[in-house]
UniProtKB/TrEMBL annotation:
GO biological process per UniProt: folic acid biosynthetic process; tetrahydrofolate biosynthetic process
Keywords annotated in UniProt: ATP-binding, Folate biosynthesis, Kinase, Nucleotide-binding, Transferase
EC code: 2.7.6.3
Biochemical pathway: Cofactor biosynthesis; tetrahydrofolate biosynthesis; 2-amino-4-hydroxy-6-hydroxymethyl-7,8-dihydropteridine diphosphate from 7,8-dihydroneopterin triphosphate: step 4/4
Pfam families reported in the protein's UniProt record: HPPK
Gene3D superfamilies, per database record: 7,8-Dihydro-6-hydroxymethylpterin-pyrophosphokinase HPPK
Enzymatic reactions: 6-hydroxymethyl-7,8-dihydropterin + ATP = (7,8-dihydropterin-6-yl)methyl diphosphate + AMP + H(+)
InterPro entries linked: Hppk, Hppk_sf
Domain 7,8-dihydro-6-hydroxymethylpterin-pyrophosphokinase as annotated: residue spans: 85-96
Transmembrane segments: none
Protein known as: 2-amino-4-hydroxy-6-hydroxymethyldihydropteridine diphosphokinase
Length: 175
């Protein structure tokens, strides 16, 4: 059983439809989805705010690199163009963590770093992840830590910048 934690975001076009396209594309693999949050863009590029969520999915046919390919397919289907680092995007689908048989996958190859090297300092990842899985943990610097504790370490102003919305993504039969 291979389970993935995906951080999804969009700040171009119909942001909500872009996020929904991820759940639709993953179909029955979706196990859980967080509420949708709005966050200001960061990385020094002036741009519109993002809608963000976290999706937990499971597919025994995919390993970590298979999940990466699937994430890129979903981004490509949404017209994702990689022109500017941390620039605006129709859809961003990041692998945050992968578990294979309940064991966290660690990867440091050229194509994929797991767990995501910056997830532990990004409130727009941690807040939705905590909402969907309050018991979640992540390995940081070879130490397994609870998401709640990692979020406590994030600057309060960044945590406050992850704003709840009334928007909800639909899973499977909720259409």
């Amino acid at each position: 059983m291979t389970t993935v934690v995906l951080s999804i975001g969009s700040n171009l076009g119909d942001r909500m439809a872009r996020l929904q396209s991820v759940l639709d594309g993953l179909g029955h693999a979706v196990v859980a989805v967080s509420p949708v949050y709005e966050t200001d863009a960061w990385g020094g590029v002036e741009q519109a705010p993002f809608l963000n969520a976290v999706v937990i999915a499971d597919d025994p046919a995919l390993d970590s690199h298979g999940w990466l390919r699937r994430a890129h397919e979903l981004e490509d289907a949404a017209g994702r163009v990689r022109e500017q680092r941390w620039g605006p995007r129709t859809l961003d689908v990041d692998l945050v963590a992968v578990r294979d048989g309940g064991v966290e996958v660690i990867s440091h190859d050229d194509a994929l770093t797991l767990p995501h090297p910056f997830a532990h300092v990004r409130a727009f990842v941690l807040v939705p992840w905590l909402a969907v899985d309050p018991e979640a943990t992540l390995t940081v610097a070879a130490r397994r830590r609870r998401i709640a504790a990692l979020l406590d370490d994030v600057d309060a102003s960044e945590r406050a910048g992850v704003r709840p919305t009334d928007l909800r993504l639909r899973v499977g039969t909720e259409h």
